User: Fold this.
Amino acid sequence: MIAIVMETLTVNPRQLRALQSQQGQAMVLGLLLVVLLAVAMIYQFGVGQVVGRRARLLHAADAAAYSGALVQARALNMQAYINLTQTAHQVAMAHLVTLGSWSLFASAQGRQFTTFNPPAHVIGMMFGARHLSGYAASAGGMALSGMARSGGELSRLFAQHDRIVRQVLLAAARAIHDNMDSSRDQAMTRVLQANYPRSAVWQGSELPQTAAGNSQSPVPLRYPADQTAPLNWVVENHHDRSFTMRQMPSAHYRRFLEDVVSLYDFLDVRDQTVRNNWEVHYQCPTLRHELRRRGRTRLDASGNWQSSDTLSYHALRSNQYIGCYYREYPMGWGWIPGRAIRPGADMPHASDAPDDFADVDFWRWVTQATDWDILTGTANPLANTRAVMGKRQWKGGGLVPYYDLRHGYRDQSLGFTLHVSQAFSDQPALSVAASADTFFEPASDHGRYIHEQPGTWHPFWQARLIAPRTTKGF
Assistant:
């Protein structure tokens, strides 16, 4: 049995030489596998570099796009603040012209009181102690007319507001409108430069020839990565025209200002009529002596604020020629006309009137020289005439244009797409795109502004990144 096993284990010399000739082939195969594995690892490392470079470039593009949209939001919000500030200055100017007419009114009333025209005791007897005390208090306001004269304190303040409206705020709004795109582009350039401090950043579709990469290899051939690879970027606006435009002060804008002014009681219509209780004449048993206070603050056709204030005692008279009529005794008057030369139709007046009616009957002069209604009228035409003759002209340029969204853009956002490319010396250039927009979203103050429409009258503009969008074949 042992002999058989030993015979079996005996190796043929020819077979032994064949086995010896195959020694070392496994090492060659192992080296080939090691080389292939090394190449795969190098390629994988290169792919990782490409992915890393692209991710870094995409993050920088996203940051730049968001910053650009944020600059747009701040520009639109600043336009809103400017428009609101313009409104505030218009309200202040309305207050000033009203203070001016009140100053003239108080001064004129003080003069009438001191000259007993009409006598104070008549006013007290006809209309009570409250109106008598008011009439008497006007004696302390006779010096106020100096504040309302051209060059006076009130007119100087009015001129300062007008200068701010026309020369400061309007110029700022124009600059924001004209430079919004360039300011956005500068912000995006700075963000890209901050992310690539050692690279040149170019705005435009072409890089300089010296900056373009030369290698066509898809895998980086050197490590570490090129830290000075230049970038170029272009922006694609989602709108063909500017998002905002210059708007002229239309009727809608005038109504808006008038609605704002109406919120202030001081600027509201100042009309009051007080009637005496005594029957005056049997021919007109329903008519009574009247004390009429009239006042208006309005925006005239030229876009300037004007204010008028008058007070007259209308004594009921009767004669055989015209029957019952009202004999007017002006007690106070004042008019700040803005640019207007003549008041409106709601302020009847005459081009001239006698200083007194000692030489001519009041009713006769009225019927011959005017078209006033002294039979059933409700105005103070003689006091209006005195106010027009003593007007104080203040310098004002009227309403100014403002900037708001272009028609048709109110339901849209202000978006753009940023295309960024980076040229490497060891691989083809990388390109990425990032989109962002500026959108209107009212603040949630208990639902107070939830129904506000997009525009530049509320600072509710915000920025966000959106899905990349391109429409022009980039």
